[in-house]
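Standup notes, structure subgroup. Blocker cleared on the EPZ input:
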Amino acid sequence: MDRIRIVGGAPLMGAIPISGAKNAALPLMIASLLTDETLTLDNVPRLADVAMLKRILGNHGVDCMVLGKRAGQNGLQGESIELRAGDIVDTVAPYELVSRMRASFWVIGPLLARMGEARVSLPGGCAIGTRPVDFFIAALRDLGAEIDIDGGYVIARAKKGLRGNRIVFPKTTVGATHVAMMAASLARGETVIENAAREPEIADVAACLVKMGAKISGAGTSTIRIDGVDRLNAARHAVMPDRIETGTYAMAVTMTGGDLLLEGATLAILPTALDVLTAVGAEVTATNEGLRIRRNGNGLAPVDVTTEPFPGFPTDLQAQLMALVSRANGTSHIRETIFENRFMHVQELARLGADIHLDGQMATVTGVDRLKGAQVMATDLRASVSLVIAGLAAEGETVVNRVYHLDRGFERIEDKLGACGATIERLSG
Ligand code: EPZ
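Run returned:
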């Protein structure tokens, strides 16, 4: 299994091209199931999760073609892929595939809307929480589907097609908002989704669906209106920049010191997190190329943060923030409210010398003067990158094991950081 070796201490200097967002690319690729014409996606990140989803969509009959490099491209840009679900030959998403990547459960919406049936394996729990799918099932029932759960599968039927309705989510959910929005696009009549997720990835998917001919308004707010149409058509759409990758590198340079340009990033996609970073000790400047992040030289200040749905502080940056404030001049408090088991990185950061006390969903982080390199274990995607950030600032050598977690969501991380002065390499096998 690959590992990543880091020798810490160097400030990060230079520019990092921000990749397309994993959490937009996945639902965008799934939206290809809604039409028998070609959906072309640009700026698709080269990630393990994207590769896995291509396999899963192929299982339903989707042709997926990666377009070759174009003149003027240097190969560091994201991929351009053509997806065409001319014929959906299979409406079953098997356990063997869904269990490998949870978001593949989201195919249930487009399959049901277009084919009137879907049999999708329950995704099961994951390292960060139980993550049930009850809100998905309730929303699809609101749209008129009959749903049974049998043998670990969700069996959904709507032989006469879906019909528009009012959907009220008891709690904000990104995945179920994506799925309800996609399914309602082909339902008869109007759907209104209330307490919808407002994450920028929702608006990015809605923008693509509108290009395909859907009638959607209000995406990005907590009330989304969809007027169903009979069919959706071919379109071309570029995946938005990855705000979690942006926040991760911004925290890295704030921890190591230095001056980084995050190419393609904007303030709008990461409001609260950038405010928190400024409070900790970063200078954040919007430029024509992206966001410039520099350490302000006053040492790191402690902060109190609670993770929340957008526009609040993203749970996907919680672990990275914890690594950052482990070197702050004082005590920080981080409360995790989205997932019930998202502190797996705490014990690993402690191996590097961090001083973190857990009490339920609250982490108290008492800043230390120095971190010291060690062997550490990645447990999930975001936890693994918090160990990389801490390793960049630790004295000596850190080795992060099980980096397959990292490859699921960070494109060429060692190349990007290495190009900015970090001593970082991948050790294969
Ligand atoms: C998306 O997951 C992201 N994944 C997650 O990123 C992210 O952490 C999460 O949104 C929150 O921002 C993708 O976009 C692929 P939710 P999702 O539905 O949709 C509960 C990463 O690191 N819930 O908004 O699964 C759920 O258990 C990943 O890139 C139900 O109870 O998250 C959680 O506590 C990790 N029943 C809360 O709602 C349901 O039916 C929010 O989950 C659905 C959700």
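Discussed briefly. The mean pLDDT is 96.
Next: hand off to the docking folks.
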